[in-house]
Amino acid sequence: MKDSSYLIGRQPILDRLEKITFYELLFRSQESPGSANIKSSLQATSQVVVNSLSGFKIEDVLGTYCGLINVDGEMLMSDSIELLPAGVLGLELLNSIEFTPEVITRCRELKSLGYVLALDDHVYSSEYEELYKGIIDIIKIDLIKTPLERVYQTVDSLKRYPLKLLAENVETRHVYLRSRSMGFELFQGFFFSRPSTLQKKKISDSTHTFFKLMQQLIDDSDIAKIERTFKLSPALTYKLLLLVNSVSVGRREKIRTVTHAITLLGLEQLKRWVQLALFANDDSQELDNPLMDMVAVRAAFLEKLALLHPGTCTLPDAPAEAFMVGTLSLLGDCFGFTIDEMIEGLNLSEEIQNALVRREGALGELLTIAELIERLELDEATKLLNQAGIPLIKVLGCQSKAFGWRDAFC
Fold first, then answer.
1. pLDDT tens digits for range 308-359
2. 317, 294, 297: which is closest to 307 by C-alpha?
3. What burial letters (b/e) apply to 321-353, b meaning 16+ CB within 10 Å?
4. What's the pLDDT at 249?
């Protein structure tokens, strides 16, 4: 079955006052939306990361809390993990990881970058002494799998280290109170809450587009060439904007163009995201989707029209801004969310927001003209064009070029 939605599981982790401190983010699939049916831990982690950062708004998944994501050894050693915003998403290291000197060095490096590190389903051993002494923040102990006597021994052995113990699989109040009295500081289990599943309609991408983008990044292509690849995929452009807002750099200034978003994110971060997305991506062919074709045609039309409008023709960034307005103006219709919901999740410039929501400003007027022409309300469109001093023959030329957008970017 082809995935039609982003899915991600979430279960709260509480403190001794029974207040939420973290959410563990869990892999979910269309085949098994209520539980984790994991065929590949790397693919599962990749999908959780991609869905968290560019499928949902990170605030919708976590609110004001921090998240923990399961990480295997391969993902831990990959640069891609650094795409996650430290201080927002922490790393729960699976018990399958072999803690070689290289892995311990990697953990120390990630700790220095600000990541919270947790050991999953851990059993105390003196061989992990180096990890206990300031590298690991949280140790999870499974209260179902671990015999009670071993739990007492583990707590007694670990209480001298600067870390917190998390009681996992707390299923009754009796177990919760007992684990509190033993010295656990964090708690997770069905007694508090079963994992919930968040769902959002998926905005598809072509795997071919991801591979093309990956190759450009490997070849150190210039940003203009990378931007053209994003223009092939309106949905990918929207995901880029969500991604920029999910990592810390995206909050510093308002986004005006695709190039601006790429610059804010940085090519290394973009490369990490594409690498993860290739693992998590389906193989739908977006360019053959007529709705996506309509989005791209409108965006290309506005880009050309911006070169003619007196309010935009002298502004160097205006064509790219107009392209973004055209892209975003139809995505809500294609994927089932309102323009206000989309705006809320993106850190767009005031000019772009005003154009999309209220059809105000020069960009808003361009969008209105495009919509009138699409509806064949040519008399109204001509009035606006005459007011702006734009000859109709030039507008028809812009429209003709827009219909050839696919050939122009290939």
1. 999 999 999 899 899 889 888 887 776 667 888 777 767 788 999 999 999 9
2. 317
3. bbbbbbbbbbbbebbebebeebbebbbbbebbb
4. 44
| Inter-residue contact 18 to 176 (CB < 8 Å) | no
How many domains does the structure of the chain reveal? Answer: 2
CATH assignment of the domain containing 336: 1.10.3210.10
* Domain housing 238: 207-409
Q: Using a CB cutoff of 8 Å and minimum separation of 24, what contacts does 283-288 make? A: 283/206, 283/207, 284/2, 284/204, 284/205, 284/206, 285/206, 285/208, 286/204, 286/205, 286/206, 286/209, 286/233, 286/235, 287/206, 287/209, 287/232, 287/233, 287/406
pTM summary value:
0.59
Q: Which of 99, 98, 179, 188 is nearest to 135 (CA)?
A: 99
Between CA 28 and CA 40 the distance in angstroms is: 12
Residues 343 and 289 in one domain: yes
Judge if 250 and 184 occupy the same domain: no
Phi, psi angles (nearest 5°) of residue 192: -90, -50
